[in-house]
Design a protein that fits this description.
Blueprint: H1 2-27, H2 32-35, H3 40-56, H4 74-85, E1 89-94, E2 100-103, H5 107-111, H6 115-118, H7 132-140, E3 154-166, H8 171-174, E4 181-193, E5 204-205, E6 211-223, E7 238-243, E8 249-252, H9 255-260, H10 264-267, H11 272-275, H12 281-294, E9 296-298, E10 302-305, E11 311-322, E12 329-338
Antiparallel strand pairs: 1-2, 1-6, 3-4, 4-6, 5-6, 7-8, 7-12, 9-11, 10-11, 11-12
Main location: nucleus
InterPro entries: bHLH_dom, HLH_DNA-bd_sf, Nuc_translocat, PAS, PAS-like_dom_sf, PAS_fold, PAS_fold_3
GO molecular function, one term: DNA-binding transcription factor activity, RNA polymerase II-specific
Length: about 350
Amino acid sequence: MNGQVVKSSARNRREKENNEFGELARLLPLPYAITCQLDKASVIRLTSSYLNLRRVFPNGFNLCQNGTTANVGPEIYEIASHLMQTLDGFVFVLAADGKIMYISETASVHLGLSQVELTGNYMYDYIHAQDQIELANILMGAGVKWNEAAAADEFEVERVFFLRMKCVLAKRNAGLTDSGYKVIHCSGYSRFRRPNGLETSQTRTTDGEGALDCLGLIAVGYTLPPTAVTEIRLSAFVFMFRASLDLSLVFLDSRVSELIGFEAQQLLDKTLYELCHVCDMDAMRKAHCSLLLKHQVTTSYYRLLTAQGGWVWAQTQLTLVHIPRASRPNCIVGMTSVL
């Protein structure tokens, strides 16, 4: 008799537990087709990530009782805007410790990794080992100084960086990858809070200027380029070039004369540094170093010399191209867009 009571109690407990987990899964901001298949560990992981996201962006989730938005903070408009504009990328939000609080479902299109798999796990587990220190420095606010004159308790710092992320797509769908990693161009901002205004123990030191508290990072990730460089259709405002590893130009297409006035032959053996404005040279150097390490990069906007002695604003996508059966990269291929 006692054994039956124990079994009945255990069965009732399991039923209540399953019902609670089912209800919790239904409350997650995910389609029912996904939530109905989640195991208990995934429900806990996703719920924890969602609650953490609400803590970092509390003003972004205020809703009226009828479901319409009210007093929605700029963070949600930021995310919504990016989602509308990022058909060739995905949005992600990281906590200060590198956990993925949110990532859009479009990540699966570019990486082959699902939104459910990524959310709640550490970004460090999905990026190249050589990029982990760079990401940690971004999240810790290395080099960021608190402006004592600022009245607000929180402030934001713009971030542009490149990460090599795991890609498990089939080769025909993956685009350009290197050892299973795809270069992702990340653009967004980190949010920091005044040290005495944070209700958490995650405090970071920055350049001896005291402590800053990182709330998180929101960014959009784009693949570079979306297809192989040999398959990209060039517009009328883009010219292509090949260069050696020191950015010495060895070939330029004919569009260069229409866009900046130089004939292609005039620029052979010159480096991209010689055509770049001196004030933009440091940014070009950083992009060059990142290219040699990660094999793909997009430069920031820079001033490009014209034949008339003036300058035009430009941006260049650079790709390190390997030749088959060669132990070293063959050349750099660049596509420069002139504004």
